[in-house]
Design goal:
It is a single chain. With 328 residues, the chain is an alpha/beta fold. It has a single domain (28-74, 99-229, 251-326), classed as TIM Barrel (Alpha-Beta Barrel), CATH 3.20.20. 38% of the residues lie in helices and 17% in strands. The protein contains 12 helices and 13 strands. The protein has helices at residues 2-7, 11-21, 54-58, 103-110, 135-146, 171-186, 204-217, 238-244, 255-268, 284-293, 302-307, 310-326, and strands at 30-32, 35-37, 41-43, 64-70, 83-86, 91-94, 119-124, 152-156, 194-198, 221-224, 248-251, 275-278, 297-300. The chain has an 8-stranded parallel β-barrel with strand order 3-4-7-8-9-10-12-13, surrounded by 5 helices. The chain has a 3-stranded antiparallel sheet with strand order 5-6-11, with no helix packed on it. Strand 3 (41-43), helix 3 (54-58) and strand 4 (64-70) form a beta-alpha-beta unit. Helix 5 runs parallel beside helix 6 (171-186), helix 7 crosses helix 9 and helix 9 packs parallel to helix 10. The N and C termini lie far apart (40 Å).
Length: 328
């Protein structure tokens, strides 16, 4: 990323990137939760945690970039080594633990951003040392600090790498947290969309609760899904996977489960909840599968790492064809 930063300071290289990776087409324009996206392919949270590379990433063809997860105070995250590639599975296991420089440092970077038509989402979480009963204050701190600098918010209660964080997905604490954020949002003269990022490991009963809570609190959408703690169906030998230890698994192994969750939420809500589909997207086919399941936008992380920026243009090219066929 630092090399990319350096080279994109040179005008003709910026033009090469624009021509190679960015595709402009009116059929890519997507309206979701009141925002207009130049295309429906975004970068998921976790890649640009501190909002350092938004300018550079915008030249890779994304329609939107999600920063974070940000916490009120900077924290170093879990001990290293904490990120592992499963090359045979096109997957990644990570147990980063919300390592970030804190919300104020991210704001310094956001103030310098030239978005180039790309929307920015702020993914927010709680500090590791904050007990769950005080978690709402951490989310509110990040919300208020970031409000003027991001286009939408994502409430992350689904990372498996912060102790007890996923307990906040239970009905009572989740409803309280989302209601508190919506209450603050409604006080603003112009509101910003607030989305909830959920785990792929929820049961169908828990997903039913999520749908009820989203509709009841009137938050603006769901991101499905975060990483999984499951290790089912991997090609990598079990003993190697076990040696790597705990963490969330992303990439190809997550593809079908995340699509299943998208489809379930879409059907359960009768299409009333806008969904960003994320998990295992490594090709245009994978992305269109998410859209057909009910997602309005998609995000990459592991697919971007394995396939490189050319995959974004490939996905957008196929989405143009897909949408033109649907309307034609």
């Amino acid at each position: 990323m630092n090399s990319l930063s350096f080279f994109l300071k040179i005008g003709f290289i910026r033009n090469i990137f624009k021509n190679k990776f960015i595709i402009e087409d009116k059929s890519l324009l997507t309206n979701a939760f009141g925002l207009d996206f130049r295309n429906p392919v975004g970068l998921a949270a976790g890649f640009d945690k501190n909002a350092k590379y938004i300018n550079e990433l915008s030249y890779c063809g994304f329609g939107f970039i999600e920063i974070g997860t940000l916490t009120p105070k900077g924290q170093i995250g879990n001990p290293k080594k904490r990120l592992f590639r499963l090359k045979k599975d096109k997957g990644i296991i990570n147990r980063m633990g919300f390592n970030n420089d804190g919300v104020e440092v991210a704001i310094k970077h956001l103030k310098k951003v030239r978005k180039n038509g790309v929307l920015v989402g702020g993914n927010i979480g709680k500090n590791k040392v904050t007990p769950n009963e005080d978690a709402n204050n951490d989310y509110l701190t990040c919300y208020h600090a970031l409000f003027d600098y991001v286009d939408y918010f994502v409430v992350n209660v689904s990372s498996p790498n912060t102790p007890n964080l996923r307990a906040l997905q239970e009905r009572e604490p989740l409803e309280k947290l989302l209601s508190t954020l919506i209450h603050e949002n409604n006080k603003k003269t112009e509101q910003k969309p607030i989305l909830l990022k959920i785990a792929p490991d929820l049961s169908m009963e828990q997903l039913d609760d999520i749908v009820d809570i989203v509709l009841k609190t009137k938050i603006h959408g769901v991101i499905a899904t975060n990483t999984t703690i499951s290790r089912e169906g991997l090609v990598t030998p079990t003993n190697i996977v076990n040696e790597l230890g705990a963490g969330g698994l992303s990439g190809k192994p997550l593809l079908s489960r995340s699509t299943e969750v998208i489809k379930y939420i879409n059907n359960k809500s009768n299409g009333a909840i806008p969904i960003i589909g994320v998990g295992g997207i490594h090709s245009a086919k994978d992305a269109i599968e998410k859209l057909e399941a009910g997602a309005v936008l998609v995000q990459l992380y592991t697919g971007f790492i394995y396939e490189g920026p050319s995959v974004i243009k490939k996905i957008n090219t196929e989405i143009i064809k897909y949408r033109n066929q649907a309307h034609g």
